[in-house]
Write a structure and sequence with these properties.
The chain folds into 2 domains: 66 residues, Double Stranded RNA Binding Domain, CATH 3.30.160; 80 residues, Orthogonal Bundle (Arc Repressor Mutant, subunit A), CATH 1.10.10. It has 6 helices and 6 strands. Helix content is 35%, strand content 16%. The chain has 171 residues and is an alpha/beta fold. It has a 4-stranded mixed β-sheet with strand order 3-2-1-4. Strands 5-6 form a two-stranded parallel ribbon. The N and C termini lie far apart (51 Å).
Length: 171
């Protein structure tokens, strides 16, 4: 046992209707939502990179406030989240993720819209990279960012998951 053990990351598997997602939180807030139907390896790799040395502990009870709000969103009864978040990223990534949170439910923006919103119109590629690094799918709504021509572009959770989330928000 090390003298300076790292704080744990708590996780659970959220299953709701056809959805199956690993989610994780620190004591400070939600820090990870995985891709649809991906094995726990996605969470383990992410945790080893972002929180090296932090133990992963399953804790259904601690994650209940998060699973409740995410399930409400997935069934179409929640449009905004009140849960706390705890994400790590560069200052630029955090600026992009904050801009994503300002995209209204049911609406979409392009990568260049986001680049203009953060007053860096030439940084469209960097914006795309920052969006791809978003650790908290769904709640930081990167699925609402589409190509300038309206095409569904890359998504960490896969295009099928992105399509499902956008369809959910249209109804």
């Amino acid at each position: 046992m090390t003298k300076h053990s790292k704080p744990p990351i708590y996780w659970t598997l959220l299953t709701h209707e056809a959805w199956s997602l690993y989610i994780a939180a620190t004591t400070e807030g939600l820090c990870f939502i995985g891709s649809q139907n991906e094995p726990i390896d996605e969470l383990v790799q992410w945790a080893n990179t972002r929180y090296p040395g932090s133990p992963l502990l399953e804790n259904v009870e601690l994650l209940q406030p998060y699973t409740i709000e995410i399930a409400e969103y997935l069934q179409g009864s929640r449009k905004q989240f009140s849960i706390s978040f705890h994400y790590q990223g560069t200052a630029f990534q955090q600026e992009v993720w904050k801009a994503l949170c300002e995209i209204p439910y049911g609406e979409t923006k392009s990568y260049s819209d986001i680049a203009h919103q953060i007053q860096r119109p030439a940084a469209v590629r960097a914006v795309g990279t920052a969006i791809g690094a978003n650790p908290i799918l769904i709640t930081i709504p990167c699925h609402r960012v589409i190509g300038k021509n309206g095409s569904l572009t890359g998504y960490r959770g896969g295009i099928e998951m992105k399509t499902k989330l956008l369809q959910l928000e249209k109804h």
